[in-house]
Amino acid sequence: MSDISVSVRNLSKSFRIAHEPGGLGGYRTLRDDLTKLPGRLLARLGRNSRRTSETFWALKGVSFDVEKGEVVGIIGRNGAGKSTLLKILSRIIEPTSGTAEIYGRVGALLEVGTGFHPELTGRENIFMNGAILGMSRAEIRRKFDEIVAFAEIEKFLDTPAKRYSTGMYVRLAFAVAAHLDPEILLIDEVLAVGDAEFQKKCLGKMEDVATKEGRTIIFVTHNMDAIHRLCSRAILLRDGVMAAEGDVTAIISSYLHETHPSVRQTYRLPEKCNTAADICLIEAEVLDSKGRSCDSLLYREPFALRMVWRHFVEVAASSYAVRVYDNRNRFLFAVNTLGSDLQLHHPGLREITCGFDYNVLIPGNYYVTIGCYVRPYKEVHVVKDCLRLTILAVPYQSGPRFSVVGDPAFALHPDWSQHELNDSSAKGVKSQPLTFA
Known about the structure:
Blueprint: E1 4-19, H1 30-34, H2 39-45, E2 52-67, E3 71-75, H3 82-89, E4 97-102, E5 106-109, H4 122-132, H5 137-151, H6 166-179, E6 184-187, H7 196-211, E7 216-220, H8 224-230, E8 233-238, E9 241-246, H9 248-259, E10 266-268, E11 279-287, E12 293-294, E13 296-298, E14 303-311, E15 318-326, E16 331-336, E17 348-356, E18 364-374, E19 378-392, H10 423-426
Parallel strand pairs: 3-7, 3-8, 5-6, 6-7, 13-19
Antiparallel strand pairs: 1-2, 1-4, 8-9, 10-11, 11-12, 11-14, 14-17, 15-16, 15-18, 18-19
Helix pairs in contact: 4-5, 5-6
């Protein structure tokens, strides 16, 4: 057990959901309490006037272990039980049954302002949070300057926290949780509140904490790119039950398959679709290099997107756009008809084809969103994730090899050149400017 930081066994948590009498709207307000219902009306309401309740299981029979120094990502839809699990691990709430054993000091960042006192200043809250984590005053002082520099709130350090913006709250809360040397760090989706630069900074700090300092991290987020980048293992929760556990890529694929259940090889407008839009996407599909409908392509193989649109009325300045995302929900690129000579504003049924003569997407799964916009960028009709596209690796014998370093979205093949130089001619040689055709 010495190598285990967190041990969860058959963990379950239930909540009692009360339902107020439904005869007058289903819930009670202050006005209802102040103006009591007449007894005759209550009698006429009968059983509808009685309070009812039901039991909701946020977690049910969850079991897993987290080793020291491991970074585990927990993913799932909203309401799957992710935040409830972290609140149990941080001892905010108690489980209904089962056990959750923690071996080490815990730092938690679960909600904006958790553990902060609004009347205390930023400086005082740093010391208070450190004390809650079990740090001595000397330890907090040693880390104090580093925390303040990371949070970037020097100017407001002696301002009461109640006057902080949401972003300032998050910056300071994360800085305290990450720098005060907790052995186990619990982080919820709260990082999504920060701006892009702050999120990048936080992810970099979490990488340092995990790889260089060897601390344990349990990370809950809907950002699949962050899960893939940081975590060595992932857990998928579904309706409070642990649906899958293991390899990050496989778990992310399972989760995205759940969130995109309607994605098919071709898109057809549902027969029962009631759209009030002036422009509507009727169908869409991916075509391979031979013009055949498909949902998979070889790497570097040319392809096209075929779309059929119906314009019910004349719409001026309209344009079509295609957006492509990878299986971690990263936005990769977009193309649109702006600047083309297509005449798109007349009413009627039309077929539009968008061709790509070179495919630079690396092998993997991708999702296509198609939409129509009226300048400047006003949505008219958008179908998100209407197509799924799989890029297959090319066998070595039939295509060039390429080495993938890191985790890119594209594989580019520039033309390389070489010029031999002798020792004497190499002195003082300056590179010639590059020219591109």
